[in-house]
Amino acid sequence: APALPAPTPITVAYGDGIGPEIMEATLRILEAAGARLEIERIDIGEKVYLQGNTSGIQPTAWDSLRRTKVFLKAPITTPQGGGYKSLNVTTRKVLGLYANVRPCTSYHPFVQTKHPKMDVVIIRENEEDLYAGIEHQQTGEVVQCLKLISRPGCEKIVRYAFEYARVYGRKKVTCFTKDNIMKMSDGLFHKVFDEVGAEYPEIEKEHWIVDIGAAKLADTPEQFDVIVMPNLYGDILSDVAAQITGSVGIAGSANIGDGVAMFEAIHGSAPRLANLNVANPSGLLLGAVQMLVHIGQRDVAERVHNAWLRTLEDGVHTYDIFKEGNSSEHVGTREFADAVIRRLGSLP
Amino acid sequence: APALPAPTPITVAYGDGIGPEIMEATLRILEAAGARLEIERIDIGEKVYLQGNTSGIQPTAWDSLRRTKVFLKAPITTPQGGGYKSLNVTTRKVLGLYANVRPCTSYHPFVQTKHPKMDVVIIRENEEDLYAGIEHQQTGEVVQCLKLISRPGCEKIVRYAFEYARVYGRKKVTCFTKDNIMKMSDGLFHKVFDEVGAEYPEIEKEHWIVDIGAAKLADTPEQFDVIVMPNLYGDILSDVAAQITGSVGIAGSANIGDGVAMFEAIHGSAPRLANLNVANPSGLLLGAVQMLVHIGQRDVAERVHNAWLRTLEDGVHTYDIFKEGNSSEHVGTREFADAVIRRLGSLP
Ligand SMILES: CC(C)[C@H](C(=O)O)[C@@H](O)C(=O)O
Ligand SMILES: CC(C)[C@H](C(=O)O)[C@@H](O)C(=O)O
């Protein structure tokens, strides 16, 4: 018999709040689907912060991440105040994860939404902008924060967006900036969009000032395909786009760097819902599906995605999606995972 | 017979693109409604820019604005490149218009919307943040832009929001910031919100990180009442909120300073629609209604607002609101103004 392909090493963190529950559910589904993974577990988040480590991650955890180069990460909680740094942001910067890919797709009529035809991928610059974290108390009364935009940063993210569109057969890439006000910084992003875009003649190009672009996205998202934008706009508008598909709980996210990638849900750790077996594991699961494609296990990715879709189609829903009155079934996190597993079909 | 009250001097600018048409329509309605106004007209925008004045406004125009202290302004076009400065931003800064008040209300079923119960007022800080316009080319490859937040700036806008809620009987004020990342700058805004809010015990207080707040606003805007936020978030999210009421064309905006105020539509000059008699004058008209209240002509404000509402209720619509298939009538800018005027009723 032919040897089975070697499993792919990945680093996994269970996170805080609802993190452990949705990670447990996700990993059970991946295993049942036949994903070939060798899991290294690291601890991050609250526990590490409260041990006095303001970065929320142990130095040794970086070794695992640099070795496996693939990170499946549950949401974490960053304690308020006390100089704690956002681990999400640190990870993106330390590992050079310059592209944050956030597909926001409607699953109408299985997930109720006012925007049934939406299928947008937001590609968010992930290292620069106001996230540089440079803040300064100028006087007792005045604070400054620095927004940084670099040409290499713009080139990397814009090229990623066009390559993504090409590979996935997407027809249009839209750019959002506020360069009527920030002529140099957002202006640079817009200029690079025009320059790089010219190399992709087969793809339609479009630009909107971010305010009116955001308005269009919230009103008629079906007019967009791929949208590329600076970090902070991408943060805000990917939450908007994910939410209006029906639930922020079903969007996964890939953070891509040169040779390293991190996969997560786009929602947070929702501490108030922790340990209640109510959280929706779909966001992290769809992040994991992106991961499977990334590591070349597209067959498993498709099997998981199909089983997940059939679960929704069969009306099996966690509380955030469930609506009284239709014939659907209201289940907990574990039962949702079981339902997906039952729909995986026999393994090949 | 008792003497009529003296008319209030106001400064008016017809602007660019669709500006002259919607201003003409608005002023005709105000006159027919019996507004007591003494109009000083100034030129701003494209014509002035192209005369080589990078500010888009003649020095003498400031004299009029400083004298009348009330400015009804149509949208203008700022030419691309060439060091032209946004006149909107200049006006807000020179006149110290620190509060931008943007009511976003649904007029369901007369204006079709997915959010029939929405009645949100966005109160946007109007002078600080990235709008300080300080940009700097650090190297050939790196650009910086400065975000400025000051304690007096935060105090003024937050207090304005709570006073607004008190005067207009609004129950809740929500604050949006991104202080999990910008701990000092957005953190200051949030802190001042908590401090000033404590002086208004009768008003409910709430805070959301701007990404999830924006998602909630786009999804279920009816959960919000008054929302106060820094300048750039307010720019983006007031366009979102206005658009999802059914059209960005029906939202007016007040820019309030100490003793000076500017009233405008929140949409832009839409050059492609200019001179076609198709633009919706409602945004500027509702800005003018806010102006009438501001200058103490509440009776006229109500008359105009009621007539405008009746016009919508009767199904008389400009193209942006009009939907095929219902029994409504599709009219141009001038005819819409005529329809409002016919519904003013007899003057008292
Ligand atoms: C938690 C926070 C630092 C993070 C961000 O702002 O990027 C989150 O909102 C996200 O979008 O992943
Ligand atoms: C035209 C532009 C400078 C302005 C802004 O960004 O404030 C506009 O979008 C607005 O919201 O009034």
From TrEMBL, chains A, B:
<comment type="subunit">
    <text>Homodimer.</text>
</comment>
<keyword id="KW-0460">Magnesium</keyword>
<keyword id="KW-0464">Manganese</keyword>
<keyword id="KW-0329">Glyoxylate bypass</keyword>
<comment type="function">
    <text>Catalyzes the oxidative decarboxylation of isocitrate to 2-oxoglutarate and carbon dioxide with the concomitant reduction of NADP(+).</text>
</comment>
<keyword id="KW-0816">Tricarboxylic acid cycle</keyword>
<keyword id="KW-0521">NADP</keyword>
<keyword id="KW-0560">Oxidoreductase</keyword>
<keyword id="KW-0479">Metal-binding</keyword>
<feature type="domain" description="Isopropylmalate dehydrogenase-like">
    <location>
        <begin position="9"/>
        <end position="340"/>
    </location>
</feature>
<protein>
    <recommendedName>
        <fullName>Isocitrate dehydrogenase [NADP]</fullName>
        <ecNumber>1.1.1.42</ecNumber>
    </recommendedName>
</protein>
<comment type="similarity">
    <text>Belongs to the isocitrate and isopropylmalate dehydrogenases family.</text>
</comment>
